[in-house]
């Protein structure tokens, strides 16, 4: 699908301002160094923008950003692009500062693709902006390829009344502990939310891990239980189940065992991982011996408080030595386990 037009705008940080100035922008020629770079970004957008989002509605099947997107996708043009840039300015805080927004429109007889990409600016751009214009030659000079902290969004379809209700985004700041890292981009600017909610994605993944543990071999259980105990450092990160398992170098056969416990598409659907929700499904790990001894501890700390030593192992059995040390909290008789 060929690019038909590209626009570049300086998107200011005017959230909360009484008046938002008209954005400074320019049409980018479809040739030259800057075009080559944007064309490469556009070509990679389908592979890079993996976080699924869906537009929110006010109850009347209306969404302000989607309306702007539909106008741009149908007719294109500088004014439609400028309206999108202005909306970004109204959502951008001073903390995020001035940004350089590119809007790309491509189409053929199968539909339309719109890609938005926001980059940090260079001080040279700020100087040029003082003249009230944005110069393509200047952008060619200062816009470099090693910017990594950019945000992008990709929307594809036939721009009809019922289309363009979802899309995909890339945000280099999403995978962080800051809740507000991508809020203004996804929720405020795009007026969207993650398609797979944190609660649904986390719960589904947690149950798959739990189901995979049931009936697994001793070695597989050991690997899964260790995995459950070390998930704290991905809390609030947006990842897919496959990416989470790969991040912790879970073996291929255990990975496939977990992924087989959920619908096939779910393996690569991204969601914000919530450790507390995950723990609500896999809160405790319990080890029980044939002699009747039972040791239970919270999954997240089990390996820190319980020493688990394998003394003898066969294909079907393990003889283990379990020990722990701590302040006594309870010592009582019970009717049942």
Task: Map the helices and strands.
Blueprint: E1 2-11, E2 24-27, H1 33-48, E3 51-55, H2 64-75, H3 78-91, E4 99-108, E5 111-120, H4 123-129, H5 136-142, E6 151-157, E7 166-171, H6 183-189, E8 192-194, H7 198-213, H8 218-228, E9 238-239, H9 241-247, H10 252-259, E10 271-272, H11 275-281, E11 284-288, E12 294-298, H12 302-305, E13 306-313, E14 318-324
Antiparallel strand pairs: 1-2, 1-4, 3-7, 3-8, 4-5, 5-6, 6-7, 9-10, 11-12, 13-14
Helix pairs in contact: 2-3, 3-6, 7-10, 7-11
Protein name: Nucleoid-associated protein
Organism: Neotabrizicola shimadae
Structural commentary:
The protein has 2 domains: 2-194, no CATH class; 198-324, no CATH class. Helix content is 34%, strand content 25%. The chain has 12 helices and 14 strands. It has an 8-stranded antiparallel beta sheet, with helices on both faces. A two-stranded antiparallel ribbon has the order 9-10. Helix 2 packs antiparallel against helix 3, helix 7 packs across helix 10 (252-259) and helix 7 packs across helix 11 (275-281). The chain is elongated and about 80 Å long. This is Nucleoid-associated protein.
